[in-house]
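Allow me, if you will, to draw on your knowledge of protein folds for a short while. I have a record of one protein: its chain in single-letter code and its fold written as discrete structure tokens. I remain grateful for any guidance, and I place the record below:
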Amino acid sequence: MALGATLLIFVTILVGALLLTEVAAAGGSRALVGTHVTLALAASALVLIAALAASTSMEAAAAAALVVAGSVGVLTWRRSVAHPQARSVSRPLLVIHGAAAALSLALITLAAAHA
């Protein structure tokens, strides 16, 4: 399951990179976007390490890091809704990004619970 989470993380990163260019062009909150990207990259590294190490504690740490990164991502999205320029951000890409991240969280959590 951790391997599946790792593969989904790569989808999340790819779509997130596409969204990042749109958010930057729309004038989104740079501090929040930067925090989300930093936390998400750290969480992604933990997911990869957890998949390679097959460690329950690493899987739990990866899940916690994904929750934190996701929370900041949702906060970023909620704050950007108020800006008219941010409404140009592709909603389908945003849905794919969030769904892949949520599925990654579910898989890494299941991996930690089943070990």
Summary: The mean pLDDT is 85. Residues 2-114 form one domain. The radius of gyration is 14 Å. DSSP finds four helices and no strands in the chain.
